[in-house]
Amino acid sequence: xxxxxxxxxxxxxxxxxxxxxxxxxxxxxxxxxxxxxxxxxxxxxxxxxxxxxxxxxxxxxxxxxxxxxxxxxxxxxxxxxxxxxxxxxxxxxxxxxxxxxxxxxxxxxxxxxxxxxxxxxxxxxxxxxxxxx
Length: 133
Hints:
Helix content: 55-70%
Number of helices: 5
Largest sheet: none
Order of helices and strands: HHHHH
Mean pLDDT: 77
Distance between the termini: 73 Å
Strand content: under 5%
Low-confidence stretches: 126-133
Shape: elongated
Structural class: mainly alpha
């Protein structure tokens, strides 16, 4: 395999030296990187194949959802909504940690129930606070 890799690298270097890559679309422009920076390198190729076939890995979906929640969290000033978003972020983060094989492996359903319970408590606390004012 290394011989094949060396041959490919040699041919690529020769083509680059001849300037065969100079007129390619997007030459000199920054690369558009996907959301797979946290995905292990050995899994990225399989994920790209699935993505091209219309499937997105669960970890990528969750990372996108986490990014969207973080953006939403930065724009919120209401304390009750803020706590609900934080609960959802916590649940998503725990689910991601379990996908990574981290120290705590919790089922997705359990994480969802935790987020719901936290949201209910925040909602009842916000209602109690509003009634006391």
